[in-house]
Amino acid sequence: MKWDDGIAAYDEISRPNQYCQVVHIVTKSPLSYKNRDFIDKRIYFKHQGVYYIYINFVSDDIKLPSKDCERAKSVMGCFKISKTEDGRVRMMAQSQTDLKVRLLICLISF
Question: How many whole angstroms separate alpha carbon 53 and alpha carbon 42?
């Protein structure tokens, strides 16, 4: 399996218990934008054979932003991971993320 090549770094900061994890992630950004980094809390649980991951941001105090990145925030995210009847893996995802991107006016008013 090949992992997403848009991830520049992924570090676990803490794991308070088996269902919760705090991670620092750096994603690569296109063009001349700075890479984005996130400090996310992830809560894992299983219900009726289906796995769920709930994600949201935590305080910047846990790990201060670096000068090389722009701190983005995972406002809310949820993954639902299950198996289909024929054995394939199905993943549904929903996320709201503040990437701290400043768009040029010419891109907004087309």
Answer: 6
Mean pLDDT, range 56-81, rounded to an integer: 94
> Rounded to an integer, what distance in angstroms lies between the CA atom of residue 39 and that of residue 103?
23
Which amino acid would we find at residue 67?
A: K
Query: CB under 8 Å to 81, separation ≥6 — which residues?
Result: 50, 51, 52, 53, 89, 90, 91
Q: Give the integer Cα–Cα distance in Å for 30 and 67.
A: 17
SS3 61: helix
- CB 72, CB 100: distance < 8 Å: yes
pLDDT at 104: 60
| Tens digit of each residue's pLDDT (9 = 90 or more) over 14-30 | 999 999 999 999 999 88
Predicted confidence (pLDDT) at residue 110 exceeds the cutoff of 60: no
> Could you give the CA distance from residue 94 to residue 80 in angstroms, rounded to a whole number?
9
